[in-house]
Amino acid sequence: MIFSRLFAPSHTSQNPEKRREAIKNLSPEKPTDKTLLHELAFNDENADVSLDALNKLGSFVLWQKMSQIAKHERVQRTANKVVLACLMGEGEITISRAEKAAFLKESASGDLVQQVVLADPELLHDISLAKVLIEKVAKPAFFQNVFLHYASGELQAVMLSMIDDLSLLQKLEKKTKGQAIHSEVQARVNAHKEASEKPKRLLREITLCLSKYNALLDKSDVEDIEDKQATLEGDYKALLRDASILSEQDKDEVEQKYLRISQSLERYLARLRPEWEAKQAKAHIEKLEALCNEQRKHATQQVDWLYYERLCDATIADVAVVNESVRALEATFEHLENTSANSSLVDKTTQTLSQLNEKITAFSMQQQYAQKLLVVIADAESLADTVTAATDTLKSDSAESQVESVEEKADSQSNNVVDVKVEFNALNEKFDGLKAQLSSIPKGLMSRWKKASARINKQHVQEKANIDAKLRQCRKQLSVIESLIEQGRYRAAMAKFEKVRELVSSSDEGTQKAVAKRFEGVAEEISRLEGWQSYIAGPRKPALLEEAKRLALTPMEDVKSRTESIRYLRQQWLSLGSSAEDKDTLQVAFDDALEQAFQPCRDYYADMDAKREEAKLVREAIVADAQSIDLSQPEATVVKVVDRLSKAWHQAGQVDKKDYESLKRAWKTAIAPAQDKIHAWNMANKEQKQALVAEAQQLAGAEALSGASEKAQQLQAQWKTIGHAGKRDESRLWKSFKQANDTLFERLKAQRKAQSNEFDAQFSQLMDSLSTADEAANESEVNDIIAGVEEAAAGLPHGLKAKLQKRIATLTASRDKAKIAHKKAQQDARATAFAEQLRCKLEGADEALKNSESHAALLGKRWTNLFSHASGASHSRHWLTVALEAVAEMPTPEADANLRTDVQLTMMTAKLEHGEQVDPVQLLEDWVAIGDITADEGALVERVIAVVNARPEWLG
Fold first, then answer.
1. Which of 38, 84, 198, 612 is the most buried (most CB within 10 A)?
2. Alpha-carbon dihedral 402, 407, 409, 415, rounded to 10 degrees
3. pLDDT 10s digits, 406-432
């Protein structure tokens, strides 16, 4: 034991070199030596000894541990290099991938992880490991580098879910164009933008909802207000489900505004409801009265319909329907009687109900009488048919060869007429009896009875009318003959007498007796005149013969005048009478002369016959063309063909009357199928165009004109596609259609003008509102005004809306610029106050500033408290000054270059090892918190003032 004190082991020697030599003789395989090596590695004060011991142990874990806890800088630096070389696979020490991964996850710093990962990208194949390592490095540049150049598609998707920074997402969006992940990156960018806009959009929607809620105060219909209130409150509550994304201040403002509006609305409704309820009650009574009037009218019409249109053949169902309409009137009247003060209406309805109920009660018996009456009318119609048939039979047998038969039938018919009258009188008595039992007779039944009666009485009336007419005619003709004799027109009187003689002889016995005396007087006078005629005719006939010969020798100029001349000469010759001695001489010569005079006329008529025959052939050809019309062609083509043939038919020459009638029938028969097809087509077109006219008229008379212009244009297009509606209807329909369209477009023009004026007025009002927003100081008021303007501008035309948006953008930009300038001015004023405070504190004259409220207001409560209560700091003012200059990226005096390097190294170490970022505000607070400023710190004060002037925002 004494010996051991005299000869201590070399590894415990005070000489570092001996300890290093001792390490060479120690073996890490031996537990004792291994313990000694551990002791020397971690507890020896000499860096070389520690490094030799670590090299002897050759353990990555120990090197890694030393890199974390080494007190000596060189040992730590060397340990870091060894650990890095091992991780890179470059050193003598090797570790497994699992150990490597575990180290990187648990112990390695961010910078080390970054170096290793970039050197060994295969580590990123393990997605969970890669995620941990990327989060540990926490550098945007490293994240972007891995994402773009090393990460697989799966890892890119995982990394994409880790990004919350919009700027990084936007960079990745630009650099991943053409890659598969681009669409997902783009989606994340959009989602991020959407999320950032969501609170603003929600606030706008809530503001708009509350604006609509507040607008209810301008309405007067309580029911409408309550309906819209319920709807808007539902919308408001639905919007508040997402209120968690709003700031507390915004939520408080929204809730206060909602509470204020809802309370105002409740007070408004309380004032409005009594008057509104009174109006509603009055409207209800008026509506009930209108309904009662309408039902009374309808019930009366239904009962009248039952009596006047369905009296004979009404079913139980018909009666039930009519009865239901009366019962509906009773139900309405019962309710109205208790509420209405309109005594006139009540009395009138009571009377109507009484009458209607009486009619419905009596209907069954009335129907029985009507059905009996119908039988009587049917018998009368049958009797009238019998009379008509007998009359037609008598007329058809009026030829001379059947005179005896006709007389026999007339006698028979005379007997039948007596029987018919007896039977008709019996039917008339029955009709009158049933008529007295009925309260009213339907017009149809009455019309049928009158027609049957007229047909039965027609035969008697017609016979008497014929006899009276013939008697009048005989008397008239005798008066004419007497007048002609008085005027000296004897020939005319003698010619007229022959006709009267035939008329009187063909009349019935009663007529002959009535004119017998007068007829005999005229006959005697005519006989006397005929004796004088023979005496006068002697010298006149040769003159007429000479005149006829001259006419025969004269060339014919006009057929009509020649025939009239011949007719005149013949009448003159006949008026002179005839004698036996004239028949062989003068009569023959006169006839030959007239025949020669008529020969040019005969030639003319022969030529006309030839032309008529030619026209007949033309018309036959037209008929053949009409028969061959192809009806399978479109209607428009058939119309053209028919028009062409019709024009040719009308332009064809004249034909004989007998031929024309047959040709006309053939023409109508041939053209009928085509005309029927055209008529059906015209009718279909007419119906379509009538429908279009009705639509156009309805459109022109409609109250709402939205979409009317487009609808009218559609109707016009449809009109063009429809064919002709026929000559009689086409122009009429087009006139109505055009008039309806003109009316519509005049209304649309007026509406557009009025709407344009309304839009202009609204636009001007909204621009005035924005002008008031320019002068408003409260940001909330400005936002409310802008929200209200945007809501009101929703219905404006695009041009006016764009002008409003531009004005809003200008207003917003102007206010934003003003806010930025105001904030900058505040920051500059605070920086000036801060500098003044520092200089006064340096000079020991800061007591005056402590009592200055204006200075305290500029400096702010936080900085005022810091200057008043020193709390000390962990670093000196000199160190803090250099740190502030480093963070502000401002130059540091050359004398402090080494200190700045140390400061930057310290800040970088804190950032890499602990993820701590240097807070410049905290540095400034620490600078002030140290307390009093000594005279030798004057330069530091000016340097800090320069930093603050460069970065006034640090003062808040």
1. 84
2. 180
3. 334 444 444 455 466 777 778 777 777
Output the pLDDT for position 9.
Answer: 64
Find the mean pLDDT for residues 610-626: 85
Question: How far is the C-alpha of 368 from the C-alpha of 314, rounded, in Å?
Answer: 11
**Distant-in-sequence, close-in-space partners of 564: CB < 8 Å, separation ≥ 6:** none
SS (H, E, C) 21-54: HHHHHCCCCCHHHHHHHHHHHHHCCCHHHHHHHH
DSSP SS3 for 577: coil
DSSP per position, 101-152: HHHHHHT--HHHHHHHHHH-GGGGGSHHHHHHHHHHH--HHHHHHHHHHT--
185 Cβ contact list (under 8 Å, min separation 6): 160, 169, 172, 173, 176
CB within 8 Å of 18: residues ≥ 6 apart: 10
> Hey, what long-range contacts does 569-575 have (CB within 8 A, 24 or more apart)?
569/544, 569/594, 570/594, 572/544, 573/541, 573/544, 575/491, 575/495
Q: What are phi and psi of 807, to 5 degrees?
A: -65, -40
Amino acid at 800: L
Q: State both tokens at 189.
A: 């960018």
Q: Is the model's pLDDT at 337 over the cut of 60? A: yes
Largest CA distance in the chain: 219
For the record, the structure tokens of 49 come out as 């000894």
Q: How many Cα neighbours within 13 Å face the side chain of 439?
A: 18
Q: What distance in Å separates the CA atoms of residue 358 and residue 353, rounded to the nearest whole number?
A: 8
How would DSSP label each residue in 731-786? HHHHHHHHHHHHHHHHHHHHHHHHHHHHHHHHHHHHHHHHHHHHH---HHHHHHHH
Structure tokens at 100: 């490597």
* HSE value, Cβ hemisphere, 13 Å, CA-based, for 765: 12
Q: What is the pLDDT of residues 50-103, one digit of tens each?
A: 777 777 776 777 776 776 677 777 777 777 777 777 777 666 677 777 777 777
322 residue type, one letter: V
Checking if the pLDDT of 338 tops 70, the result is no
Please tell me what DSSP assigns to residue 555. Answer: P
**Per-residue pLDDT, 7:** 39
In this predicted model, what pLDDT tens digit does every residue of 647-658 receive, in sequence order? 888 888 888 777
Task: Tell me the percentage of the chain whose pLDDT exceeds 90.
Answer: 0
As a whole number of Å, the CA-based R_g of the chain is 64
Q: What pLDDT is recorded for position 340? A: 66
Q: Which of 872, 864, 827, 826 is nearest to 846 (CA)?
A: 864
Provide the angle, in degrees to the nearest 10, between the axes of the packed helices 60-69 and 31-43. 30
Size of the chain in residues:
956
Cα–chain center distance at 481: 87
Cα–Cα distance, 904 to 335 (Å, whole number): 96
Phi, psi dihedral angles at 558 (to 5 degrees): -140, 130
Q: Cα separation of 268 and 520, whole Å?
A: 113
Q: What is the pLDDT of residues 190-207, one digit of tens each?
A: 776 666 777 878 888 888
- 429, 439, 423, 418: which is closest to 369 by C-alpha? 439
C-alpha–C-alpha distance, residues 838 and 820, integer Å: 27
What is the 3-state secondary structure of 676-706? HHHHHHHHHHHHHHHHHHHHHHHHHHCCCCC
